[in-house]
From TrEMBL:
SMART domains: PKS_KR. It is an enzyme of class 1 (oxidoreductase). It comes from the Bacteria. SUPFAM superfamilies: NAD(P)-binding Rossmann-fold domains. Its EC number is 1.1.1.-, 1.1.1.381. Keywords: Oxidoreductase. Gene3D superfamilies: NAD(P)-binding Rossmann-like Domain (3.40.50.720). GO terms for molecular function: oxidoreductase activity, acting on the CH-OH group of donors, NAD or NADP as acceptor. Belongs to the short-chain dehydrogenases/reductases (SDR) family. PROSITE patterns: ADH_SHORT. This is 3-hydroxy acid dehydrogenase/malonic semialdehyde reductase.
Amino acid sequence: MAKTIVITGATSGFGRACAELFAGAGWQLVLCGRREERLGQLAQQLSGVPVHCACFDVRQLAEVEKMVAALPENFRAVDVLVNNAGLALGLNPAQTADLGDWEVMVDTNIKGLLYMTRLLLPGMVARKRGHIVNTGSIAGTWPYPGGNAYGATKAFVGQFSNNLRCDLHGTGVRVTNIEPGLAETEFSVVRFGGDKDKADAVYAGTEPLTAVDIAEIVHWVACRPAHVNINRVEVMPVCQSWNPFAIDRQ
Ligand code: NDP
Ligand code: 8X3
């Protein structure tokens, strides 16, 4: 029987690339996102495998509960949950950042991921198999100016992933945190409130990671033998590395 993968944030970027790659490998898909039209188009495109579309907002616990309760019988035994829905909003320093933006990032990147995980984990534990693949970020480990709340949400994802592994010890359920660096998706367009020029400037003159690069990593970690747990994968494009510490000289 085909394996089942639930992908949040399947309407764009990494999530969409994961949907295409796993469909090509014969997995059946639960595609999640808020943009219903995009979900429908993607489902049509991937019609070679069973697809269930779930249109909801991961920030709303009641919607997540409804989605899980409404999973069709043949999609209930979830093998892999890719907690990918997420976003950054703004790049202002903390002292001028928009508090509302911080709330949206916390609600999506942290609370949405918690809701999905908590509701799908019991089934995985009962079946003694399953895999939670979280989408962290290099921003969860490495600080940068303006990364404030976004980076902190991804640090949460990293430590939650580690702690999940402890709780799941002996259950056979796996946990992986994938931590990408600069990758060209709709990420920067969202971060800059739809300003495409500003978003394009982020990638200008670089060869960033692509969504397919990340989907291939998700597929690789999911297809390791059952006794192998890839704890974390940090990945950057070759064009990206670190700067020296900033020193304020008087
Ligand atoms: P995109 O903006 O291309 O995709 C983000 C996805 O998240 C969309 O499908 C969007 O769907 C979904 N999403 C956002 N908010 C919600 C919500 N409240 N409820 C449900 N779905 C939501 O960005 P990426 O593919 O780049 O981002 C995917 C993940 O990767 C994010 O967690 C991001 O933080 C992380 N990441 C991105 C990096 C990059 O440089 N691109 C690097 C490191 C990590 P919809 O709007 O239809 O709901
Ligand atoms: C996305 C990568 O460096 O823009 O998580 O924060 S970065």
